[in-house]
Each structure stands twice: as C-alpha cells, then as structure tokens.
Amino acid sequence: QLELVESGGGLAQPGGSLRLSCGASGAILDYRSIGWFRQAPGKELEAVGCISIHGTTIDYAESVKGRFTISRDDAERMAYLQMNGLKPEDTAIYYCAASAGYWSMLAGDYSTWGQGTQVTVSS
Fold first, then answer.
1. If I label 68, which of 10, 26, 83, 96 is the partner at 20 to 30 A Cα–Cα?
2. pLDDT one digit per residue (tens) for the chain, 123 residues
3. CA distance 123 to 112
C-alpha cells in the first residue's frame, strides 16, 4: 500500500526558499499524479499545484505561479515542491497526495495523503 511522507518544512524569511520533498513507500509513483496542497490556520485546504503521470502536465494555483515549482523523480519515488519568493501568506501545513488519475487540482480526487509538513514564513 502506498504511503507518502513529506519533509523539508520549517521557518523561512519572506523572500526566502524552501524545498519540500514527498517520499513514497509501499508502491511506485509512476502511474499516479501528485498534488501539493496546503492548509493555513483557520482556512480551507487549497491546491498548490499538481504534476501529472510522467510529469507531462504541471499546473499551479495562481497564488504561487512563478514562485513554486513541482517536479518528480519516479525512479527515486520522490516528488518535490520548490518554493521561492516565500511570503507570509504561504504559511501553512503542506501536504503531498497521490491520485490514480492522470491529473487533478481537486483534493477529492486524491486517495493517498502524507502527514503534512509545517511551513512558516516570518521575519
């Protein structure tokens, strides 16, 4: 059974960078799309972006376009979220998730979720 574990969260200053990793165990990632989501205190879960099976399609929420980059390395069973130009409003718990579908920005389409990693952007 596929399990996901996020890492790489922490404290960053505004304008800084963090790289989140999502490691898979129990199954391969090759035939799953990967989504990144986040939930800020008191707010609903929102999509950050997703990468399709084989990485042929990548899309981002408008709020992170041009600052965040999603990638995947299926051979290593890893996915990544590179976050540059961080803003205080990026503070949230970040989750990676896997879906058997080709690509989706909808949380309900993802069946496997990691435990989340906290990202705090503050000076």
1. 26
2. 899 999 999 999 999 999 999 999 888 888 899 999 999 999 999 999 999 999 999 999 999 999 999 999 999 999 999 999 999 999 999 999 999 988 899 999 999 999 999 999 999
3. 34
Fill in the DSSP letter of residue 24.
E
Contacts with 56 (C-beta within 8 Å, 6 or more apart), sequence order: none
Tokens 């879906």, located at residue: 99
Question: Which runs of E-coded beta strand occur in 8-122?
Answer: 10-12, 18-25, 33-39, 46-51, 58-60, 68-73, 78-83, 92-99, 112-113, 117-121
